[in-house]
Amino acid sequence: MPKFPDVETWQQAEQLMQPAFIRLIDNLRKQLEQSSWKGTYEDVPLWAEDVSDDVKLQVTQLQEKLQSASAEDVIAIEAALAQLPSAHTGYHLHLEQADQRVTVDLWNLCYQICFKDYDAASGMTHALGETSSSQTVSIDTDLFEETGAVDWNRLDRKTQQIVEQVFGTLPETHQTINQP
Length: 180
What we know:
Elements: H1 7-33, E1 38-46, H2 53-67, H3 71-82, E2 88-97, E3 100-105, H4 106-114, E4 118-119, E5 124-125, H5 152-168
Antiparallel strand pairs: 1-2, 2-3, 4-5
Helix pairs in contact: 1-4, 1-5, 2-3, 4-5
């Protein structure tokens, strides 16, 4: 997860994230239409680092019970869930071709679009030659016009570049064609 240095960076990220995500999904769709890879999307729970596996299991079990609970039980289950941490929703794209499978974290791609030199492993921005002293992300200010509005053309171009990089790094499959 990205770490924001200040409120202004958070606000700029809020301004970019939804349009970036929409463009990301659209560009992935277009790329999949031209590719031999097949894609399926999956919602995945994202938990805070300090949430234990026992708590995650407890929340999951309560959510499952909620699906078939009676009206009286719903109130008690919802009250119990309100006392526990909840996960945020993440999204994965599973790409498959022949016997190969690649999973792509869509939020990480979105962060790469919105932030400068985003490092998915650390959740931070790393400029070339910089050590990891910076513990926060930096907004890609090139995605904004001088007025502070989103520069839609630059956002579209950067999104296309990120999607092309994803598909450009996929493993190649070598299929044998049997001829009579």
